[in-house]
Specification:
about 270 residues; mainly alpha; Hypothetical protein af1432; 14 helices; about 50% helix; globular
């Protein structure tokens, strides 16, 4: 477990005066960024996959469940959510239901924009982890399904297969296997058969670089002090995301229930 050096943390944010001016959300994001950065500076002693598995019965939650449905904070409580508007758009879901991944995906999209990536890659980076609100396990596949009816096919392909490619290095493209995964999965982790099969397929696929560029522009530790707003991406969203006139969750699409699950995560049945 990483120990928090409170003085160092406050100093990294510019001192106590700067911290007082920050919102609660900004403080929470800064703390997560600090802890992730500290994780990356720890001695590189990674657990084995068996040690990760042994942790299952030490927790009162499962790691694959979506962010809206639990809190992993010790003795923490979930918060009451603001109701969704009658005809919600993607931006409504992003602002009201996807806050826990918003800083990460905004930084990822910002990196893609700064490095001159095509608009579809920028949007794929913005969308790629947002399905974590609903579910974490196999999130690339869930995310592609969630967004498939509303975005171009190549964009959904990038979201779907970034999950497989993140387990395989491509140094020529600028992607190295992150230490974060050695901690999360174990240093001797072997990807599941479906991931191996997808990687084999992708190596010769004409769209290989689309999901690969999502992994290249992904950030496996938040950049401390970097706050990105949604505003620079609104026009890109408008050009490549087709919001249904009835509102997401109300349009009768094959994935409408997934949007409703995020809109109403407190419904018992």
């Amino acid at each position: 477990m990483i120990q928090l050096d409170r003085r160092h943390f406050i100093a990294s944010l510019g001192g106590a005066a700067a911290v007082k001016l920050m919102s609660s959300e900004a403080k929470a994001e800064a703390l997560e960024a600090y802890m992730m950065a500290q994780l990356n500076t720890q001695p590189k002693k990674f657990p084995k996959a068996a040690e990760i598995e042994a942790q299952i019965e030490t927790r009162d939650y499962r790691r694959g469940v979506g962010n809206l449905f639990l809190t992993t904070q010790p003795n923490g409580k979930v918060k009451k959510l603001e109701p969704m508007p009658p005809k919600p758009t993607f931006l409504d879901f992003f602002n009201l239901r996807m806050q826990q991944t918003s800083n990460h995906v905004l930084q990822s999209a910002n990196r893609a924009m700064k490095t001159g990536m095509p608009e579809e890659i920028i949007l794929a980076c913005l969308l790629h982890d947002t399905v974590h609100a609903l579910i974490k396990v196999d999130h690339g596949y869930w995310g592609a399904q969630l967004y498939g009816p509303y975005v171009p096919e190549k964009l959904a392909f990038a979201i779907r297969y970034h999950q497989a490619l993140r387990f395989y290095e491509d140094k020529e493209a600028g992607y190295e296997y992150p230490d974060l995964y050695r901690n999360l999965f174990g240093e001797d982790y072997v990807p599941a058969p479906h991931i191996q099969a997808d990687y084999k397929m992708l190596k010769n696929h004409k769209w290989y670089m689309e999901p690969r560029l999502v992994t290249v522009n992904d950030l496996y530790a938040f950049e401390p002090g970097v706050v990105v707003k949604i505003d620079p991406f609104i026009d890109i969203i408008g050009r490549h995301f087709k919001n249904p006139k009835e509102g997401l969750g109300n349009d009768g699409s094959p994935v409408a229930h997934m949007w409703r699950a995020m809109a109403m995560p407190d419904n018992p049945l």
